[in-house]
Amino acid sequence: MEVKSVAVVTGASQGIGKATAVRLARDFAAIVLVARDKENLETAAKEVRLAGAETEFLATDLREPQAAETVVKTALDRFGRIDALLNIAGAVPQIDLFEMTDAQWDDGAALKLHGARRLTMRAWDALKKTDGSVVFMSGSAAFGPKPAFAAVAVINAAINALAKAFAEEGIKDGVQVNSVSPGAVMTGRRRAFFEKWAPAHNMSVEEAMSRFPQQAGITRFGKPEEIADLMAYLVSPAAKWMTGAALRMDGGEIKGV
Description:
Helix content is 49%, strand content 14%. The chain is of the alpha/beta class. The protein has two domains: 6-185 and 223-249, 3-Layer(aba) Sandwich (Rossmann fold), CATH 3.40.50.720; 186-221, no CATH class. The chain has a seven-stranded parallel beta sheet with strand order 3-2-1-4-5-6-7, with helices on both faces. β2, α2 and β3 form a beta-alpha-beta unit.
């Protein structure tokens, strides 16, 4: 069955990925949701259907090389086309530069960088047919590397570079590619980080969370829905001339030009 517009969203079981999948239901006829957590995916898919789009979901690990083939084949078999790919999946551990092992570096890059790279390559022919759009999820750490989260910064910077390389190819092939670098967005994953970090620094979770925005030079944490609105804009007709851009949405945390 072919529908008029189809978006594939990875990392769609929670946080920014889930918020993006729900938001895109207002603009796309069908959403393919991809993540590892089947139970949370089912819940997210229900919310997307309530928001107005048909759904398909796949509980798969994009770190595995064959996963990209599975995702694209499923989307095309079910809906006949792919108009947008939003690579949101991936969490890189925040471990000090001098403590992080080779295995942790490899695992950090396996999903967010290489999983997104393989999926974009596999979906490219389908995106060419629809003059489609791709968005890569990076992060504001790419613009301000620190020893405490060196891998986050390095992998996010690599994603921005990868997106620009795909964008260059996309100019020839008619595929629009951009990246988004959120700042401190309050998700379940970020709260879990504070729940571990705060006791180690003799603080309550609430105290740590209340202090962070001031320390980061922002007024508040971002909301997943705010990033979702930006993602939706980037794959909308209004943004079609924007390609090769690395957009930050961080509440003003990165002060450099």
